[in-house]
Amino acid sequence: MLRTTTCGALTMENLGENVILCGWVQKSRDLGGMTFIDIRDRYGITQLVFNMDDNRDLCEAARSLGREFVIKAAGLVVERSNKNLKMPTGEVEIKITSLDILNAAKLPPFLIEDETDGGDDLRMKYRYLDLRRNPVRNNMILRHKMAQTVRRYLDALDFIEVETPVLIKSTPEGARDFVVPSRMNAGEFYALPQSPQTFKQLLMVSGFDRYFQIVKCFRDEDLRADRQPEFTQIDCEMSFIEQEDILNTFEGLIRTLFKDVKDFDLPEVPRMQYADAMRLYGSDKPDTRFEMQFVELTDLVKGKDFPVFDNAELVIAINAKGCAGYTRKQVDELTDFIKRPQIGATGLIYLRHNEDGSLRSSVDKFYNEEELKKWSSVLNTQAGDLVLIMAGTTDKVRKQLSELRLEMGSRLGLRDKNKFSALWVLDFPLLEWDEETERYHAMHHPFTSPKPEDIALLDSKPGEVRANAYDMVVNGTEIGGGSIRIHDRALQALMFKHLGFSTEEAQKQFGFLMDAFEFGAPPHGGIAFGFDRLCSIFAGLDSIRDVIAFPKNNSGRDVMIDSPSTIDDKQLNELKIKTAL
Amino acid sequence: MLRTTTCGALTMENLGENVILCGWVQKSRDLGGMTFIDIRDRYGITQLVFNMDDNRDLCEAARSLGREFVIKAAGLVVERSNKNLKMPTGEVEIKITSLDILNAAKLPPFLIEDETDGGDDLRMKYRYLDLRRNPVRNNMILRHKMAQTVRRYLDALDFIEVETPVLIKSTPEGARDFVVPSRMNAGEFYALPQSPQTFKQLLMVSGFDRYFQIVKCFRDEDLRADRQPEFTQIDCEMSFIEQEDILNTFEGLIRTLFKDVKDFDLPEVPRMQYADAMRLYGSDKPDTRFEMQFVELTDLVKGKDFPVFDNAELVIAINAKGCAGYTRKQVDELTDFIKRPQIGATGLIYLRHNEDGSLRSSVDKFYNEEELKKWSSVLNTQAGDLVLIMAGTTDKVRKQLSELRLEMGSRLGLRDKNKFSALWVLDFPLLEWDEETERYHAMHHPFTSPKPEDIALLDSKPGEVRANAYDMVVNGTEIGGGSIRIHDRALQALMFKHLGFSTEEAQKQFGFLMDAFEFGAPPHGGIAFGFDRLCSIFAGLDSIRDVIAFPKNNSGRDVMIDSPSTIDDKQLNELKIKTAL
C-alpha cells in the first residue's frame, strides 16, 4: 500500500499512530532548525514536520522539495503546539521519519491556490492544473453529488435510466447538428443528438412508463457567452400522466436536490402563466428573488400631449424602492444602460417620490401633481421610491424594462447568489413567429401538444394557441422545460403541416415516430433540465464553464488537447470526404 | 390523475377498492356473457372483467378492443373465482364500470409475447415494439439496476463521476476514430473518444484521486458479430495505489454486482499469470466454469517416429471426462470442428480410456500400451475418459486446443449461463508483434507501465517485457481490463519510441499528457469494464445487442430511424466538406 490514510483524515484521535501519507507539496516553511510542509490531496491538508537536530539529511531533503512535488511521507502523528482550528487536521502534525519523492514538478504556470494569478487562457491550456484548485475541484464534486442525488430520487420513483444512441440521424428542424461521416455507409452521415427527444418518446410507446437519463447532447451553434457545443441534460419522460403529475414529480426532484446538496428548504414552487410572466416581468424566466413587478400605466398616461406616451402601444413602470435619492448621474447611467445596442431602448422616464413626500418626474411639463399622484398610487410608492417608466411596442418595451428591472435588482443587492427562488411558468405559446424565415416555429419542439381547447385556433390564430408546456425557472434562469407530447399520429401530422413540413418531409424525417404512434402510444410527457446550468446555479457561478471538467472555448476549441485538428488524408479517403476550404 | 395504480399492484388486500388502470390490451377472451381482458403495463398484468348482463354497451366496447390498444379502465377490485397463483395479481380481477380508449393500435407486425414470431430484421425496424416484450424490457431494467449499483458502490468509496468530453481529438494509435467536422474551425475535425483514457489520467494529475464514469465510447471498426460502433464503459482510475488496491477495489465491485443484482455470492476471484493462462487454457480469457486444463505431452511423445509429434513445437492434450464412448462420427465431428477455417488445425489425435480399463489411441501403431499408460497417467484419466491431443507451433496449437476445449465444455454442458466463474489474468505482455505493420503494438495501450524489473528488456527482448496490466474474465469473456499507468515523462517518451512514434509525432498527439506528467503526476492506475458485455453476461445472453435499447446492425445502421443518411448540401457547405464517392 502506498499510503495508510489521506491528508484530510488525521485528528487528535490518531495521536501516536504511524502513518504514511501521499500528496502534493502545497507550501513549505523553514523556522530555525525546523521545516514544516503542508501536504495536500483531494481530502485535505496535513502538516509534516522535519527537524534538523533529529535527522539532518531528511530535513534537507524536505527543504529541497518544490511546490507541487508529489511525495510519500511516513511518520508519527503528534500534537501541534501551534494549532490551527480552522482545519480538520489542524490540531496534529506528522513527525516524519521517511520521505520519498514520487514525482518532481516544474513550477506551475499559475498559483495552485483558491485565488490564482492565472488568466483564463492559461488556466484553460493547463486545465489539469486549474482543476487542482479547491474551488474548481469542489464544483466537480458538487456536480457528482447532484448527479447521484438525481439518480437516487428518480430510481426510488421507478424511473429507469436508458441509454439512447449518440449516433443518430440529422434533422433540419431546430439548431444545427454536428454530423459524423459514416465509413461503412459512405456518403451518409450520422448526427449527434440535440436531445434524446424522439427516443424517449419511443420508450414510452414501448411501455417503459418512466424513463430518465443524464445524457450528453450536442448543438453546433455559434457559441455566445456561456454555451458549450456539448452539454448535459437530465432527460425525463413519463406515461399515463397529466401535467400536474410532472410538475409534482420534478418539483420534488428540485426540492430534494436543494435539500440534499445545499441543505436548503426550497418552498413550494409557485406557478405562473406565461402570459402573466410576460405582463408582470417582461420575461418568460423572471428572477423572482425580488418583486419589482411591472405596472401598466398606458391608459393613465395617454392624452396629455406627451407624444412618447401617446404613440406608445404600452407604457409600463417599475418601482425601484429606496432609489429616490439617485443622482442625476445615476439616472443617466440607467438611461445609458437601456440605450445599449443589445437593449435598444430610446429613453427612460422617472418619477421621484421624494423623502419630503413630493413627486417629481422627468415629464413634469406634461403631467401635473394630481396626475403624478395617480401614478404613485397605482405603483404603491412610498417616500424614497423611484419609479422607472418605459414606453413602446408591447414586446419590445417589456423586454427592455425586464433588463432594467434585473439591473435595478443587481444594484439593490436583491440578486444574492446564495438565495434561491424557483417558479413554474406554464402554458407557453405553441408557436412563435420567426421574422427571418417568415413562418411559425415550434416554441419548444414539434412534439409538444397544443391545449385541446386551442386546437381550433391553429388555422385562424396560430400565434394564440397555447401549449401544454412548462418551464422551471430558478433565479431568473430557465433550468428545465418540457411538455405533454402529442401521441396521436393525425395531430402530429397536423403540427408538422403548420410548421411548414410537406407530408413527404415529415414522413422522411419523423416517419418512425408517427408510425410508432399507430401501434398503441400512451399519453405521455416529460421534461429536460440543463444539468450544467443547474450545477452552476447550485455552485453560485455565472458561467457553466467551471462546472465542466474540460470545457471548450468560445471558438469551440479545447486548447488543452488542441482540438479540433486536421486529420490524415488516409482518414479522409476512408470516409470518402474531402475538405472544401 | 389518469390512473390510480399500475397493472402489477393489486392483490387480495385491495378487495373492494375502486381503481383506475391504464395499459395495453395483452389479450381478450369471451366466455359466454363475459369478456376478460388482460391489461398490461411495465409492472404487470391485471384481469379486467366485463359482463353482458351488467352493461351490454361496455362489454361490447371491450369486445371491440384489439391487441395493443391503449385503454383506461375503472372499476372495483373483486376476488377471482378462477385464481392464477403464478401472477402477483392473479387472485383478483377488476369489475369494470368505465372504459376509455386512449389510443387505438394497428396489428403489430409480430407477437408482443415472451416468445415472438418476429425475425431479427423486423424486430429491429420496430424496435419500440420489440422493447415492449418482457424479456427485452427486463434486460433494460437489469442494465439500469447494474448502473445504479455500480454508482452506489463507487460513490461509497469516494469515487467521483466526472464527465469527460465527447468531442475530442483524433489519434492515429489504436482503432479507427469516428470524426466530426468542425464548422467553426473549418478543415478541422473532432474525434469521438474510443475511451476517456487520457482525460482520466489528467484527472489523476489534477488530484481527483478516485474517478469513475459510465460513458459512451466509439470505434469505427468493421462490425464483426457482436460489436457496436457505440458502446458503454465503466471507466475508473485511482491515484496513490498499487495493483493490489485496484484488484481488491474492483473485485469488490463485481462481487457486489453479483450479490445485489443476481443474489449470487461470487467467491473470491482467483488470479492467474497471463503465461499460465496461455499454458493451461491457450487463452488469456479462459472459461473457468470447467477445468479441462491443457497437459503438455511434448517430451513424452517425441522420438517414436510419429512425424506429427516429432515435428511439433508443442503437443498438448485435454481430458474430456466421460467421453470415451464417443462414436467414430462424434470424433469426426470434433475433427471437422478444428479443421474449420477460423480454427485452421490439421488434425486431432485421441486416446480412449475405455470402460474396461483398456487404452486405445488413434496413433496405436506408433505408441504401445506402456506409452499410452504414461499419457493416461499425466492426464490423470479414468475409465470412460477421452483424451484429445493436438500438435503444432506453440501459439497456434494453443489457440486451436482452446477452441476445442470450449466446444467440449459446451458439449458436456459445462458452460451453464446461470453459473458464473471469474478470474483475474495478470502480467500481460507489454507489447505484441503485429505481422501486418511489422512492428510492436501496445497490447493494452501506450500508457500502460512495464514491470520495473523488465524495463531493461525493452531494447533486447521487447516481446518479453511484462506489463502491470490485468484483465477480469467471467465465463471466458473479458469483461474488463486495466493497468498501472506510466506517470513519468521520460518513460512515456521511451514507450512511444518503442511503438514507432517519432519524438515530434508523440509530442503532437500526446504532448498535453506528457507535459502534464511534468507538473506533479501521482502514481495511478485504473480499469475499464465493458458495460454492455457485463450486462449481457448477467442477462445470460450471447449478444450485447439485447442489452442495448437501440442497437445498430452489422452495417452500423439504425434501421428503425434509417440512419446514417444523406445530409443537405447546405450542411455540407457550412462544414466546408464534400463527399468524394
UniProtKB/TrEMBL annotation, chains A, B:
It comes from the Bacteria. L-aspartate binds at residues 173, 219, 444, 485. It holds the Pfam family tRNA-synt_2. The keyword Nucleotide-binding applies. One of its GO terms (cellular component) is cytoplasm. Keywords: Aminoacyl-tRNA synthetase, ATP-binding, Cytoplasm, Ligase, Nucleotide-binding, Protein biosynthesis. PROSITE patterns: AA_TRNA_LIGASE_II. It is an enzyme of class 6 (ligase). Its main location: cytoplasm. It catalyses: tRNA(Asp) + L-aspartate + ATP = L-aspartyl-tRNA(Asp) + AMP + diphosphate. Residues 197-200 are annotated as: Aspartate. Its EC number is 6.1.1.12. Catalyzes the attachment of L-aspartate to tRNA(Asp) in a two-step reaction: L-aspartate is first activated by ATP to form Asp-AMP and then transferred to the acceptor end of tRNA(Asp). NCBIfam families: aspS_bact (TIGR00459), PRK00476.1 (NF001750). This is Aspartate--tRNA ligase. It comes from Pedobacter psychroterrae.
